[in-house]
Design brief:
The protein is an alpha+beta fold and about 350 residues long. Helix content is about 20%, strand content about 30%. The protein is built from five helices and 17 strands. Strand 12 and strand 13 form a beta hairpin. Keywords: 2Fe-2S, Dioxygenase, Iron, Iron-sulfur, Metal-binding, Oxidoreductase.
């Protein structure tokens, strides 16, 4: 049995990653070929020629079609054979490559894993800050050598920052603020409210003023495999609260979407949507580089953790009080897998 949900949308790539040249990517153990047609539609098909199984991503693009580099079988964007290896051989349109439902939204290319007939674009997770007016969004992609659920555990854990990120975003004050965990249906939330603290350098620069601030962090698990973290600061006295902070100070959403590759590896799509300095492209590029450095600290820990899990098959992960968010997110995933495919929830993160 797989360790991920089916009949769901998963991020396959950033919009900018897919162009005319073939892109090979393994998603939920299936080799996938991605490319764009002349009218910029994204095509997704099984990355294996139906003749001798050479990856089609090694093939030659011809118009909107792709020709296998081994014997020259030509496959159209619908996955159907258009030309046989021998020009004298009669075309057999029964030769097909499996194709997949694709949608583009919120700067991402989404691929439906499961029954293609159930692929409803309305079920794509609502990453509204990535597309909303008055916000800007950018980020990156890493292949990580760990089970995607370890990344979910990490992102739903608000206690690891002090130690893992001691040289970047960690603050001792983070360990002093109480953490609340809640869940309803497929939605799991971990939140922390830090009133009257000193703003770390990034948020002080974003707010463009000194003085104590009220700071918040709210982690939302979004099925099947994303964590969106609502973060920001407001000057003390501005009226911000944990429940109402959308009109005070500066705010961002850390966007994290983990797509399983195998049982011990995944694709990590990350970024940040923000509502301040949205026209400053230089700042966007600098922050993307800084954010990538912070996530590299997580990746080092998580890949070491995965290696240790494999090296210690007689030991099991343990959950303490600080692990509540990750534990509840895992339960959502496990319930769905054990109960079989069902209509996904499309919970919206708070505006």
């Amino acid at each position: 049995m797989s360790s991920w949900m089916v009949d769901r949308w998963y991020v396959a790539a950033w919009d900018a990653e897919v162009d005319r040249a073939p892109v090979a990517r393994t998603i939920c153990r299936v080799p996938i070929l991605l490319y764009r047609t002349l009218d910029r539609r994204v095509i997704a098909m099984r990355d294996a020629c139906p003749h001798r199984l050479l990856p089609l991503s090694m093939g030659i693009r011809e118009g909107d079609s792709i020709r296998c580099r081994y014997h020259g079988l030509k496959i159209g964007p619908d996955g159907v054979a258009e030309e046989m290896p021998l020009k004298t051989e009669r075309l057999n349109t029964a030769i097909c490559v499996e194709t997949y439902a694709i949608a583009e939204k919120h700067r991402f290319v989404w691929l439906w894993v499961g029954d293609k007939a159930k692929a409803d674009p309305a079920l794509i997770p609502d990453f509204w800050p990535c597309s909303a007016e008055g916000w800007t969004f950018d980020g990156g992609h890493d292949r990580v050598g760990c089970d995607y659920r370890l990344l979910i555990d990490n992102l739903m854990d608000l206690t690891h920052e002090t130690h893992v990120h001691a040289g970047s975003i960690g603050q001792p004050e983070l360990m002093e603020a109480p953490i609340e965990t809640a869940s309803e249906g497929e939605a799991v939330t971990v939140s922390r409210w830090m009133p009257g603290v000193d703003a770390p350098p990034f948020w002080r620069g974003a707010l463009k003023q000194d003085g104590p601030v009220d700071r918040w962090q709210v982690c939302h698990f979004v099925a099947p495999s994303s964590v969106i973290i609502d973060v920001g600061v407001a000057p003390v006295g501005a009226g911000a609260t944990l429940a109402d902070h959308d009109r005070q100070g500066v705010r961002g959403f850390v966007i994290d979407s983990m797509t399983p590759e195998t049982g011990t590896s995944c694709h990590y799509f990350w970024g940040m949507a923000r509502n301040f300095d949205i026209s400053d492209q230089g700042f966007t590029a600098r922050f993307k580089r800084q954010q990538g450095g912070v996530f590299a600290e997580d990746i080092e820990i998580l890949e070491a953790q995965q290696r240790s899990i494999l090296a210690n098959p007689d030991l099991k992960l343990r959950a303490y009080a600080i692990d509540g968010g990750g534990v509840r997110a895992r339960r959502v995933i496990e319930r769905d897998i054990q109960g079989g495919p069902r209509a996904p929830s499309n919970e919206s993160i708070a505006a």
